[in-house]
Amino acid sequence: MEILLVLGLLLALYVAWSIGANDETMATLAGSGFTSIALAALLGALMDFLGAVFLGYTVEETLGKKLIKGILTTTDVVILLLAVATWLIVASYRGWPVSTTHSVVGAAIGLGILKYGLSGVSWNSFLRVLSGWMISPVTGLLGSVIVYAIARKAVRKSVHGFSGIIKVSKYSSVLLIAFSSVTAFFRGANDIANATAFLSTLVGQPLLIRGVCGAGMALGLLILGRRVIKSVGVQLVELDPLAALCIQISTTLTMGIGTILGLPLSGTHVLVSAVIGIGIVRRAWINVRGLGEIFLTWAITFPCSAALAVAFSLFLLTLML
User: Fold this and answer.
1) How far apart are CA 225 and CA 188, in angstroms?
2) If pLDDT is split at 50, 70 and 90, which confidence band does 79 have?
3) 279-314, pLDDT tens digit by residue?
4) Measured between alpha carbons, how far apart are the two ends of the chain, in Å?
5) How many whole angstroms separate alpha carbon 10 and alpha carbon 85?
6) How many CB atoms lie under 10 A from the CB of residue 95?
7) How many Å apart are CA 183 and CA 250, to the nearest integer?
8) How confident is the model at residue 161, as a pLDDT?
9) Which residues contact 202 (CB under 8 A, 6 or more apart)?
């Protein structure tokens, strides 16, 4: 049993590292050209850690206690973490900004049904999570469009000449750093539960586990997360500081409200939807092929994670016979 707990903690670290490696929160900051990808990743790693430690408990409760009705064993927790980690690390290596939330919920649903049947899943809780998945991208997209329309109108009325435009870009860049940091804080708080929720429920010590896994998430962002930051912020759509700021404001509000309410949202979906909204309203160049690949990974994440959880469960069951 102690060996399984150690393995579970190592896998939780692996999942946290994978989450960080797949975190594109700072993509708009890098895409605006105001900072380098490396500096954006460093700032994001710090804020991810702080959010994970101090606010991660909100979503932990939703995932760890309200989704599966049955009792999870140490082996079950190891299987869940292994399934999520396997899928996320593949996605991160490919540079796909997939949803960690979809992955962990998919794995939990797959394992819950395999072990307890349909009655083993709290479908009311799942529908609540699903509604958040459906509403948050729309909120992110419409929010960025509305904020950009208001900002652009204000700029046209009060800013004149080339020097005025330069000032707008400068102030937008400074504000962008602030909003990107706040977004990363909420993103860390929301995402850390994907690594810690089931383990914390099993063994307790949630603050300690969030601290250890929060550090792992920060390292993942620093080591491999720059791939995804580049994929979303640099290769998906052209951004200027003002447009990037509007995207981040919308993302910050959506992720902040969702995290406080304990909803396990996909920060990836919110941010990418906000980026798309700005690209459409500005009639800017959008990488349609890259966008198509992102949508494909969104669609397959949930079933792939569920299938991995079932496969690992059956494999372990076969070994025990």
Assistant:
1) 14
2) very high
3) 888 876 666 776 677 778 778 888 999 999 999 999
4) 19
5) 11
6) 20
7) 10
8) 80
9) 8, 72, 74, 77
| CB 247 within 8 Å of CB 271 | yes
Alpha carbons 311 and 79: distance in angstroms, whole number: 9
The answer to whether 192 and 264 have CB atoms below 8 angstroms apart is: no
- pTM of the shown model: 0.87
Tens of pLDDT, residues 200-234: 888 878 899 999 999 999 998 988 777 777 766 65
Q: Are 36 and 233 in contact (CB under 8 A)?
A: no
Query: 10 Å Cβ neighbour count for 98?
Result: 27
Alpha-carbon dihedral sign for residues 160, 166, 169, 172: negative
In sequence order, what are the residues at sequence separation of 6 or more whose Cβ sits closer than 8 angstroms to the Cβ of residue 73? Answer: none
Is the CB of residue 290 less than 8 Å from the CB of residue 236?
yes
Radius of gyration, alpha carbons of the chain: 20
Report how far Cα 204 is from the mean position of its chain's Cα atoms: 24
Residue 51 pLDDT exceeds 60: yes
* Domain ranges for the chain: 2-320
